[in-house]
Structures are given as structure tokens and as C-alpha cells.
Amino acid sequence: MSTVEKKLLHYVGKAIADFNMIETGDRVMVCLSGGKDSYTLLRLLHLLRVKTRNKFEVFSFTLDQAQPGWDDAALRAWLEANNYPYAIERRDTYSIVKEKIPEGKTYCSLCSRLRRGNIYRYAREHGFNKIALGHHRDDLIQSMLMSILYNGVIRSMPPKLLTDSKQHVLIRPLAYCQEKDIITYLKEQNYPIIPCTLCGSQENMTRKRVKQLIADLAKENPKVPSNMLSALGNVQLSQLMDRDLWDFKGLRAQVDLTADTDSEDEALPWAVVNSADETADEVTAQPVVWL
């Protein structure tokens, strides 16, 4: 087992344990797109499945969206060589996206919605209770910054999510994993990558600009990405301005003039310093116990 594989397995195990992503008896459907992230996720989950003596099931599902040049022969060969159970289903969502979205505009929203609908349907029809997606740490922090800058909303990709229909639980076991480690692992494993001709044709997508912004900031302070990840789990509602979550109008009635202000002033700076110093990159390697 290589160093990077050990590191990735540690962070996947920690994410699973921290958010109770996988439990004994779960049937987990991994969405294998043909990209480096989903290949890595599928392989790591199978390694953990073996490590837990098959306490959960892992299945690979690939949606063929009928994009030009799609060739899944190498993907099928890789799955069969590793004895990974799988299904590849063809649904022509590519034509719908090209028809509905003008050239030069971002395809991602409609493409994702159509793909998601087919994934949910397949999982429901075949009795999978968990759907695993290959989003990693950098996806999570980029999504947060994109939402703030371009949508005016503080949100990201949660590591575990119950869908609006309450029929599916989505999990993101790579939530603590860095993209650079996945790229290193890709070179070791030599996955048969299938490029996306929809997303890959749009060089000026917002996500790429945000990704570069974070990379530039990280050159000055390497802790920026891990601090952003920590921020996703360290929300201070009273320091924001959402009136639905904080009763600003009623604060005056809650004032307690007898409160011990000295202890409050002393505690706050220490709490802030401690939370900011703990980063996902520097988590001490503790045994992960789950299932």
C-alpha cells in the first residue's frame, strides 16, 4: 500500500466515522463518471469493504449520457479486472442539454439535474440506500466561495445529505481528501479516464476562476484551504446576519445586566484561536472506528 493510498484511506475512514456515512448492511451505489475522483472513491470504498469483512455492499453505476466520443470499453475492462459489480446505463441527456443551453453558456446546472434524476431513479429501482459521490475537499470549499460571491448564499456540498424527497441519502466520503493527493493516486493507478466534452469545452467557467483564486491565496498562506474547510463546520450564527436564524429585534429583551462579563471576554478569543488553528491537513492520525 502506497503512502498516498494510506493517507486517502485515513481521511475517507475519518469522514465516514465523523458523519456516520456508512453503517452495517448499507447498499452503497458509487456514481462512477469516468473521472479521477469517482475512480478513487470506488477503489477506496472497496478496500474498506474488504477491511470490514463485507459489512456493507459497494456497487458502481455509470450513466452514459450519449456525449460524442463516449467510449466505456476501458472502464468496463477495469471494473471487470477488479471484480467490481457494476451497471452502465445509456440515457441521451447530452442532446437535451445542447438543445436547451445556448453555445457558450454553462451546461453544468441542467446537465447535473438530468444526471441526478437518472441516478436517483436507478438507486430507487434497485434498492440502494446510500448514493456515494466523488466530491473532495477542494470541491467543497470552492462551492462555498462560489455561492458567496455569485449567489449571495452561504452554502456548500454537505458530506451527508437527505434529499428533498427523503428517498435518498447522499454521502461524500472524499470530503476530507485533497485533490492533489487524488491526482498523485491517479498516476499510481493509471485509471482509464473518460473526458467530459460538455464541461471540458468551457474554459472560463466560474469554478475554475474560484479554484485559481484559492490557489493564489494558498501561496501566501498554505492554511487557507484547510481553514475554509474548518469554517464549514464552525458556523457562528450570532456573527452573521440571517434574521430567520437569529432574533436581532428581540436581543434587547435578552440582556442580562448581572452577567459575568469578565469571563465572557476572556473565553471568546481563546475559542476563536483554537478553532482556527485546527486544520484538516494536520489532523493527528488516530484510529478510525466505524461500522
- Nearest-integer average pLDDT: 86
What's the shape?
globular
Distance, first to last CA: 23 Å
Radius of gyration: 21 Å
Q: How much β-strand is present in the residues?
A: 5-15%
Instruction: Count all strands and give the number.
Output: 6
Written overview of the protein:
Helices cover about 45% and strands about 10% of the residues. Strand 2, helix 3 and strand 3 form a beta-alpha-beta unit. Helix 1 crosses helix 2, helix 1 packs across helix 7 and helix 6 crosses helix 9. The longest helix has 18 residues. The two termini are about 25 Å apart. About 5% of the residues have low confidence.
Keywords:
46% helix; globular; 6 strands; alpha/beta; 291 residues; Rossmann fold; 6-stranded mixed β-sheet
How is the topology of this model organized?
Elements: H1 3-19, E1 27-31, H2 36-51, E2 57-64, H3 73-81, E3 86-90, H4 94-100, H5 108-125, E4 130-132, H6 137-151, E5 160-162, E6 169-171, H7 179-189, H8 206-220, H9 224-232, H10 261-277
Parallel strand pairs: 1-2, 1-4, 2-3, 4-6
Antiparallel strand pairs: 5-6
